[in-house]
Amino acid sequence: MLKNVGYSRNSKKTIAVLTILLKFPAVFGAGPPSLFWVSEPVYPGETVLLQGDGLATAQVEIARMTDGPPGDPPPGAPGPKSWTRMEALQANARSVKFTLPGDRANGVYACRLMSGGQAAPLRLINAPDPWWMQGDQGESASPGGWLRVFGRNLDLNEDGPAAEGISVILVQAGRAVYRLAADQSDGFGARFPLPVDLAPGSYQAWVHNGYGGNPAWTLCPSTTTDASQPSLVRIAPPKAWPSRIFRVSEQPGADATARVQAALAAAKAEHGGIVVFPAGETGLRERLTVPDFTLLKGEGMEKTRLVWTALPGATPDQGFLEGQSFRIEDMTLEEAETTGRIKANGIKSGGLSDGFRMRRARVVQHQTDDVNVPMKSAILAQGRNWEVTGCEVSGAIGAFISLTFAPGGGTFGLLARNIFRYHRLSFSLGAGPPGARAIIAEDNALIDISLKTAKEGPYTNITAYGRPFVQDIYYARNVFSSVNGVESNWTFDGSDGVYFDKIAGAAGTTLMLKHPMQYEDRGALPAEWAGGSVHILDGKGAGQTRRLRAWNGLSLTLDKEWEVPPDTGSAVSITNFMGRVLLVDNQWNDDVPYLVAYYATADVIFAGNRVNYIHEIAGALGSGGGNLNLGQIPNWHFQCLRNEVVRGKVAIDASGANPNRGSDWKARFGLDYGWYTGPTTRCAVFRGNSNGKATGGSIGVGGLVDDAVIEGNWLNSAAVIRVSPESHFVYQRDNRIGVPPA
């Protein structure tokens, strides 16, 4: 559970409020105000940031929703009997900030915006905001298994149980049939055990955090990539794989390699099975291909060892053991030092894989720190519904890379309770066509064993590599350390942009461009780029994102209509989507100086993380937006909440790069963006962070940033709060420098 290390929520003292620079017109036309986004979770005594349109003169009113038994979904309409008008701390056309009263109880609040006698639709603040669901089987959950929900406001409690408990109700044919209680929660992810007698079928899942009564029920998105089932979770028993046993020790063959190949051939003839390896060392002299629906089973990673002493003819894109849908349990798989430098990946599941599992296994590759050696993966998990749990990976350049080549998208992966000892790259959660989503990476130990003579420091990243999206990543309770004190990084990578200009027009879900989208200098945009994101950066409708569904020349089809449609003066950028990432309760020890989500698209939360560097090195913990290839990549809705820097001169910040500086667009593509004067980054929140035990460092925003809240942070006496002259509407409150929190 997140702890409040920075300040007292009930304190009403304001340290500083920056001057509002009125760079926008008050409104863009007649009509009610619109609300796009709310900074959540938010507690009594904290500042609420509302983002929308037509907010400069809007009146904000709130009412705390009554708690009590929530009953069953669907939710009824909120009906507060009395409203309290809030004083705007800062207001402009795109945002308004106010403080949630410190004398009110924690919970769900109804919020309404009024302007000129017209009202925006009522919004519930702190009601659950589920981003995605994931089951114990990935896209499905099994009776006796579990269902997990990820997003915001799933648990509003820091010090005790919820008012009525955190729960999910499964609804089928309009009837509530199962009520599930959470057994784990950190506010951003909650786990719900499933009863063994849960009937298979498709259900709606509604989630409640225990506050706000019946109106606070929220429908969860689907666990499937099937667009025809947008709000369903599928309950089904695990797919039964063939159970016939093929013992390697009983197979014919002149040596161990021949006997293993015979066992695999026998399993293939039976469309799968269990290939059992004996205790001791099994020496192998060629790559192995595992047939579908086959489990490789040993007697334990300390007892059963498969050792490759030769890999004749191996190519860089292969694995020394590979297949599509196969599984590995209870053994060690090692590429012996006698094979020389790594010629291939280690364990590789192919792009059509569904249900790859690796449990209680060890992978060992011997490698140097030579930066010129091609990066290989000890485990290359592709496809969908994969799991790597309770494993050890040692000595690889590229200890883990996940790519997704599954038709219709993937990934639905679980990476948990593993130990990684790595050179240069611990693991990279990334995407091939058409994109990746839904990855849980939790409770892993990542140990950097790079030498100080390494030409390139190690890193861990979430990457799109030019693909349309990587989203829905839960990255929690992982511990990073370094044996030799080599500096390493945790970053985003692979951001890409394909359009940045004004538009020719918009109507409904259709957007007309002024010129074609272009995939850098590689020509036309590939067809699998559906799922990319379309952002209105400035002008009418600014602050909205839609997803790209299809396109034909200059005509784009989006996933839904705009709340405030853009016009021909609106600045639009089309990029891949890298967002909805939750970085929660991780710990970085030793020297990992840069923990930066660059370039992030939207909705990244760093919460409850702890940084403890061996040396007082300079580093960063933050998020950035900027120009890359043919797009201006936004950095919207970044929240940095209750993180602690124990040691290190760390800059906790959000940045927005100026497209007119530091870019080679004009030289490479003949483009000039001197016309653009709007922000890159919008809506950043820094709350309850602490570097009070460290020396130096900073908290703040830099570059083209609009609308930020910096409050309740505890800084050491040598630290500073930085706000760039190019940043606007930045509100500071209750930050303490050199004074420990009460």
Describe the fold and architecture:
The strands form eight sheets. The chain has a 25-stranded mixed sheet that branches. Strands 24, 27, 29, 31, 34, 37, 40, 43, 52, 55, 56, 59, 61 and 64 form a 14-stranded mixed sheet that branches. It is 3% helix and 45% strand. The chain has 742 residues and is an all-beta fold. It has two helices and 66 strands. The protein is globular and about 85 Å long.
Radius of gyration: 26 Å
Treating each run of at least 4 consecutive H or I residues as one helix, how many helices? 2
* Unreliable segments of 5+ consecutive residues: 1-29, 404-409
- How much β-strand is present in the residues? over 45%
End-to-end span in angstroms? 20 Å
Structural category is mainly beta
Average of per-residue pLDDT values: 85
Helix content: under 10%
Shape call = globular
In oligomeric terms, what are we looking at? single chain
**Major sheet attributes:** 25 strands, mixed
Total strands: the figure is 66
